Amino acid sequence: MHAGAVALITAAAFVVGVFLWIGLWYWHQRRPLTVRSLFAVVLGLGVLCRLAYVFLTPIFYAPDEQSHFNYIKYLAENHALPIQAGPMGQSDNEWEYFQPPLYYLTLVPLYRVVEAVSHGPAATVVALRLCSVLLWLLNVRLGLILLKRLEVKDEFVWLSIMTLACLLPTYTFVSSAINNDNLMIPMGTGVLC
């Protein structure tokens, strides 16, 4: 990507951020903001950021995405668990085969359906990424349940925790890519619940 394009995207993000803060301030002046309305804004931003990553990130551009995709593809085509033969970083992109298979097995039916109706991996990658976004939404729901069970009453603490779950930059990117962490995180939150 050219430096000019990066600068343009950064400037656009800055402008959007400024307008967001101005809009929140204006909204608060008309009617004081509640924690629920702020959470709705945070959740909406989390969804928008993830959808932008899903549709605007080039195919297999996310870290190890092609390796995770190849794992799902192998399971769908061979009906058996793969064996990792080579070291990490080889050009065959098969270095995720050592991972536990639950995430990949979960995505095999979706992979098969999308592959049957589309041509090329682009639509399949987008569908699998959207599944990752759904797993993030499950994690948000489990986080709300956990905070309720922990009886967190402080609104600032509650909103801070949920804001991290929705807008933490690395998690935002990972939860919009094909990655087995997207199942492990909600499973961990579920165990805590």
Percent helix, as a range, is: over 70%
Main sheet makeup: none
Shape field: globular
What share of residues are in beta strands? Answer: under 5%
Number of helices: 8
Number of strands: 0
Q: How far apart are the first and last residues' alpha carbons, in Å?
A: 43 Å
The stretches of 5 or more residues where confidence is low (pLDDT under 50) are none
Mean pLDDT over the residues: 87
Order of helices and strands: HHHHHHHH
Radius of gyration, CA atoms, in whole angstroms: 19 Å
Structural class call reads: mainly alpha
Furnish the topology, listing elements before pairings:
Blueprint: H1 3-30, H2 35-56, H3 65-78, H4 102-117, H5 121-149, H6 155-167, H7 169-174, H8 181-192
What can you see in these coordinates?
- By secondary structure, the protein is an all-alpha fold.
- The protein contains eight helices and no strands.
- It has helices at about 5-30, 35-55, 65-80, 100-115, 120-150, 155-165, 170-175, 180-190.
- Helix 2 runs antiparallel to helix 5.
- The longest helix is centred in the last third of the chain and has 29 residues, at about 120-150.
- The protein is globular.
- The model has no long low-confidence stretch (mean pLDDT about 85).
Write a compact overview of the structure shown:
The protein contains 8 helices and no strands. The chain has 193 residues and is an all-alpha fold.
